[in-house]
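Lab notebook: predicted structure, single chain.

Context: the supervisor wants predicted structures on file for every construct in the current expression panel, including those that have not yet been purified. This is the next one on the list. No modifications to the sequence; it matches the entry in the shared construct table.
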Amino acid sequence: MKDRVLRANAILNTHSTAVSVKDGLGLDKDNNLVTLNESLITTEINRLQTEWNAQSYARSRAEEYPTIEECVHAILDDDLDALQVLRQAVKDKYPKP
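Prediction complete. Output recorded below exactly as produced.
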């Protein structure tokens, strides 16, 4: 995940008065700077990055699963067994950690 996005999410998650982030700084509802606790932000960035990394398999699976169109065709063609084989191959390639 991009550092800017991580920092912005971490600020919003850890500072209840921050409603937006600009240039890495938290802003309140009146557009005033929020005093930031960098230790809290760093801890939250680490948590968010760990969560993101743990979902790598899910993002990889999503890219390789059959498309919605392929699923609809399988349903209409009464070929769900073949669809499940394709899905299982993707799951086997990208197992859950």
